[in-house]
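Field log, afternoon session.

UNIT: design team B
ACTIVITY: writing a sequence onto a fixed backbone
BACKBONE:
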């Protein structure tokens, strides 16, 4: 039986050195009928050369560097599939990734994610294995565990239905590192989350994704939770607001101290004290 058409959207900015591995991991999936879309965000390396070398095996879209959220939204406007997946340009998949997820998709579970393997980009050695943890109705997870990645491999691990995407809308382009958290949180309004308990995403650890800009990441997460508590569909969350934000502030305080941002640490101490 032929599988439904799956659109895979890969945003790229100056990751030519990893891009072939990423693309090949899609083309070598154990199921076919794939609609591969690369959205290049104004790369200045040889990304275009790598992309064009695949000819008609993929659809290439070139735009200015407007961020990953914008590139995913651009990809969605060109996607033809009944199902949607995303893959970051520096990650890659195991061959059975989509097939194993497809087996778990149904009307009740229109959002399936996986575990991941973190590996060192220079040596290829495995650094960590992160198993899926949250399933079914995940709305409370976003409130009780604000410092935990509910979908640990982020966009690279998810397979979802187009029907779900249509309900949720687009990625919020005001966010950067927290855009996936915000989008997935909105997905939980409409579907239960399911997962494949296997390391099917290989997540590359390198200098550009090792939280060099932790202040920005903290601001991004803070904004994502401001959006959550302002969302009319999340009125029920008001009773969790205090405990949720306190957990977030404690986490940010620890990060402030770790990166020696003592001004930011004082600010978070003040917020924690005023909340209690």
């Amino acid at each position: 039986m032929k599988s439904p058409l799956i659109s895979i959207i890969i945003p790229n900015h100056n990751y030519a050195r990893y891009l072939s591995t990423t693309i090949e991991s899609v083309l070598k999936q154990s199921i076919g009928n794939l609609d591969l879309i690369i959205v290049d965000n104004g790369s200045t390396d040889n990304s275009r050369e790598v992309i064009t070398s695949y000819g008609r095996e993929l659809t290439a879209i070139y735009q200015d560097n407007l961020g990953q959220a914008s590139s995913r939204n651009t990809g969605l406007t060109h996607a033809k599939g009944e199902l949607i997946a995303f893959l970051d340009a520096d990650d890659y998949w195991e061959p059975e990734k989509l097939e194993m997820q497809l087996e778990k998709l149904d009307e009740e579970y229109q959002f399936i994610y996986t575990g991941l393997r973190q590996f060192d980009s220079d040596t290829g050695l495995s650094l960590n294995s992160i198993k899926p943890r949250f399933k079914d109705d995940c709305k409370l997870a976003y409130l009780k565990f604000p410092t935990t990645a509910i979908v640990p491999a982020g966009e690279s691990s998810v397979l979802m239905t187009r029907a779900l995407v249509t309900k949720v809308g687009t990625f919020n382009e005001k966010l950067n590192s927290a855009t996936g958290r915000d989008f997935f949180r909105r997905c939980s309004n409409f579907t239960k989350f399911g997962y494949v308990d296997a390391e099917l995403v290989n997540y590359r650890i390198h200098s550009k994704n090792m939280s060099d800009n932790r202040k920005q990441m903290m601001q991004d997460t803070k904004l994502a939770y401001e959006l959550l508590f302002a969302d009319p569909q999340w009125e029920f969350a008001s009773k969790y607001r205090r405990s949720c934000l306190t957990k977030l502030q404690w986490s940010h305080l620890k990060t402030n101290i770790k990166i020696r941002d003592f001004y930011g640490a004082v600010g978070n101490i003040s917020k924690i004290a005023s909340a209690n």
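LOG NOTE: The mean pLDDT is 91.
NEXT ACTIVITY: expression trials, pending approval
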